[in-house]
Design goal:
400 residues; alpha+beta; Adenine-n6-DNA-methyltransferase TaqI, Chain A, domain 2; Helix Hairpins; six-stranded mixed sheet; five-stranded mixed sheet; 10 helices; 21 strands; 30% helix; 23% strand
Length: 400
């Protein structure tokens, strides 16, 4: 916000006039949407609740309008209703009183005002119109409004594009994790790379892996500044890391007390080792990470983890993705114990089986396929996050 409070920090060339101050009640008439007990009757007009489209209806009660949630969890949320649409009672329709207000600009202006801050109530949050009408806002000329709304609309389209690409890739990955590993006792997967026809191998867990030792250090015993060894904490396995943990790329904490490191020398982790989180508050218990990218760094498996090492050679990435597929993870579900916190024990793992193609080349293709898919997912996630941050900065600098 500029010093005189009437000009934004960044604006388009050719505009220099002060913005005009209003309260929202001078610009808009706010009115409730309408009750609708059948919002999905197959009509051509989208039906908006407080948090977006919930169906299609045969009639409409608004056109190119700004919709504000007025009750419940989404009280104060601001939506753009494109074209003709129907707004339910959970939404407030913002009807412009002034002719010099661009509808789309009005949406962005209301969006950046953080209206949810004025929503109160002893129980259910509620948007009080008397408070809403008193909120101060600043408006430029109609031409400048149109310029601002156009650039933000383009940015929104790009954000939506990368969100859709990200969602599509995540769904593809989920489907392929289901189809590229054999299930229900089958010896071949539903989808397979061309040129491979042999049955897959199936062995009990302890015929494939040897167990390693983990430490019992809490977060308080770790730091991100210095130490001779790093630690993989189960919380990071569950939330932060993917199927393959690239030690060179991910930030891992150091063990604060160097004197205890040698105690775990026999279990210093190697590339290809797998770490399983043995506790969680839901069925994500059993999530695994395969170690990759490790060179001379000492790495030890941490609290609430089960580390293990394959006996035979496996292609990089195969175990990381297989151990997180439903083909393996579903075997853990009946072995989990606990109510508020679920856990799986080392001894229980002996009751699971490991399935894999004998051909290391086929393993390699599977690992490479999912690694490339993950890289695309991360790419669109980064682009999405960058655009969201750009939009946030533009709201801060392009509005008074």
């Amino acid at each position: 916000m500029a010093e005189n409070n009437l000009k934004p920090k960044i604006r388009f060339k050719g505009f220099s006039d002060d913005w005009k101050q209003y309260n929202l009640g001078e610009i808009y008439k706010f009115q409730y949407g309408q009750f609708n007990n059948n919002p999905s009757n197959g009509g051509i007009y989208p039906v908006y609740g407080a948090n977006g489209i919930i169906g299609g209806y045969s009639g409409f009660n608004a056109e190119n309008s700004v919709i504000i949630g007025h009750m419940g969890e989404y009280a104060g949320s601001v939506l753009w209703g494109k074209g003709r649409h129907f707004v339910t009672y959970n939404g407030t329709i913002s009807v412009p009183k002034l002719e010099n207000i661009n509808s789309k600009y009005g949406y962005y202006m209301l969006y950046q005002l953080n209206i949810n801050k004025i929503c109160g109530g002893s129980g259910l949050p509620f948007l009080a119109y008397d408070k809403l009408q008193k909120i101060n806002c600043f408006v430029p000329s109609l031409d400048e409004q149109i310029k601002i709304s156009k650039v933000l609309s383009v940015l929104d389209s790009l954000i939506k594009l990368h969100q859709l690409k990200y969602d599509k890739l995540v769904n593809i990955k989920k489907a392929m994790l289901e189809k590229m590993f054999p299930k229900n006792g089958s010896k071949v997967p539903e989808i397979r790379f061309k040129g491979f026809t042999d049955d897959w191998e199936q062995y009990e867990f302890l015929n494939v892996f040897t167990m390693l030792q983990n430490n019992t250090l809490s977060r308080a015993d770790l730091n991100y500044e210095q130490g001779s060894a790093k630690c993989v904490h189960y919380g990071d396995v569950l939330i932060k890391f993917g199927e393959c943990l690239d030690v060179k790329r991910e930030e891992l904490p150091f063990i604060s007390d160097d004197t205890i490191v040698t105690k775990y020398k026999a279990s210093f982790l190697q590339n290809g080792d797998v770490i399983m989180a043995d506790a969680a508050e839901d069925e994500t218990v059993g999530k695994c990470c395969e170690i990759v990218g490790l060179d001379t760094q000492i790495l030890i498996s941490g609290l609430h983890t089960i580390p293990f090492r394959h006996i035979e050679a496996f292609a990089t990435g195969y175990l990381g993705y297989y151990m997180n597929s439903s083909a393996y993870h579903n075997q853990l579900l009946p072995l989990m114990q606990g109510t508020k916190v679920s856990s799986v024990s080392k001894s229980a793992l002996r009751n699971t089986t490991i399935t894999y193609p004998k051909s290391v080349e086929e393993q390699k293709k599977i690992g490479k396929y999912f690694t490339q898919l993950d890289n695309l997912i991360k790419l669109h996630q980064r682009k999405y996050n960058k655009l969201v941050n750009i939009k946030k900065a533009m709201f801060e600098k392009m509005f008074v």
